[in-house]
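Input/output pair, single chain:
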Amino acid sequence: MRKEYDFSQAKRGSVLPASGKTRITIMLDDDILEFFRAKAATAGAGYQTLINSALREAVVKENKSTQGEPLTVETLRQILREELHSI
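Output:
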C-alpha cells in the first residue's frame, strides 16, 4: 500500500447508511433461492428485492385477515384458486 494513504481516521462499514433497511443473515432453502434468482433474471430486478416484495405481500395479507375486513368476491375467488391449485 502506498505511504501517502492515511487510514488512521477511517471507519468500517458502508459509506452511505441505508435508511429503513437492516442487513441480516438468513438461511433459505436452495430451491427457494433458485426460484427467486431465476425470477429476478427475467424480471430485471434483484432477487433480494423480490424476496422482500413477497414477504411484504404476506405481511399485508396477514394484516388484512386479522383486521376483520369483510371478505370480497375477488378475495374469495383468489383463495379458491390458490386452494384448488394446491390440490
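DSSP finds three helices and no strands in the chain. The helical segments are 30-43, 47-66, 73-86.
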